[in-house]
Amino acid sequence: MNTLVLFLFLFPFSCVSSSPNNCPKCGIMDVPYPLSTSDNCGNPNYKVYCKNETLEFLSSVGFYYKILNINPHTSSLIISPPFIQKHSCQSSDLSLGGFKIDENSPFNISSRNTVMLFNCSENILLSPLNCSSSSPCRRFEEANEGRNCKNTLCCSYLKDSSMTSHRIRIRNQGCTAYISFVDFKAEESINAWRYGIELQWTPPNN
């Protein structure tokens, strides 16, 4: 009898302590565990930021990117790439070298991203990237968002294990602008391309 009473006493406690501690919504967006907007919820190793009711991801070099979508079932989220500045072919994070995640972070750039680079120097032609006239970056140059980069040298590549999963690099004397699409299909209309950079996270040990 004493054993049964002890079990009934401990069982509810163990259920409560193991429940995920979700953070409050940020605007209209849910913040599922393990993502954390404060020290009181989520897992602090999975920090995101709620600013003016907009959920954002902070890169390791101090640039904030708006979070567009979160899928807790696939441990992934999609952030918005920085805009390409008007009247120039430069991404707004150019001075910081582009997008970068700390290599000790539980986040990484997924392999479902197709990255397009613009205004590149000719040195990039020595790389294995697709810089040909058939590269999909040429189609993006025809869209409103890409017109500032029209007639520059552009290249595209699928983010995979052969390239760093923690960085999309741009720089002066290199490529000065970039864009990214998730699960890209070249045969689709440009209006159907899914704009964003997909990040995955490694689930916490607990």
From TrEMBL:
GO MF: polysaccharide binding
Protein name: Wall-associated receptor kinase galacturonan-binding domain-containing protein
Membrane topology: Single-pass membrane protein
Lineage of the organism: Eukaryota, Viridiplantae, Streptophyta, Embryophyta, Tracheophyta
Domain Wall-associated receptor kinase galacturonan-binding: 23-79
Keywords annotated in UniProt: Signal
Organism of origin: Solanum lycopersicum (Tomato)
Domain of life from the UniProt record: Eukaryota
Subcellular location: Membrane
Annotated signal sequence range: 1-18
